[in-house]
Amino acid sequence: MQYSHKFQTHFTFSEFMATAGSWQHLVDGIQQLRGPTHTPTAIRKVVRELFVASRGARDNVNKVLLVITDGKTYGDNTPLADVVAEAEGKGIVRYAIGVGEAFSDTDAKRELNTIGSWPSKDYVFQVQDFSALESIRQALQDKIFAIEGVSHSKYT
């Protein structure tokens, strides 16, 4: 799911599993949404609308949510602590990645640390720009697949 002040689901777990390993076409053509950052509402929507059996989420597997954001929440009155507690209550492991200069601010760093699971040093990343995401890809991929206990060669 992608978000700004709008929310767009690009594919579900069911659609991903139906790709039989050729998932790249699911992300081809996705263009970044622009606008105010409504991170708490986005997390709530993912927890309630994607991490559900009707969308292919399975009860018997670990669940991982990766939040990539280029700005501090703006214009969203949904309490971040509430939605993080909801995700935590469903056993969802959360990674937070802050992209850009917005996260040099103390409040913005606190927001990332709230989003990420504990301890934040293991679940929160910061990069300078979107192209720098590649620099943390392997470390993040290793951490996520370690949670699942599977080889990542099938999905890369």
Automatic annotation (TrEMBL):
Q: Which InterPro entries match?
A: ECM_Assembly_Org (IPR050525), VWF_A (IPR002035), vWFA_dom_sf (IPR036465)
The record's SMART domains line, in alphabetical order, gives: VWA
Residues of the VWFA domain: 1-144
The protein's matches in Pfam families, at most eight in alphabetical order, are given as: VWA
Instruction: Give the source's domain of life in one word.
Output: Eukaryota
What protein name does the entry list? Answer: VWFA domain-containing protein
Instruction: Tell me which species this is from.
Output: Lepisosteus oculatus
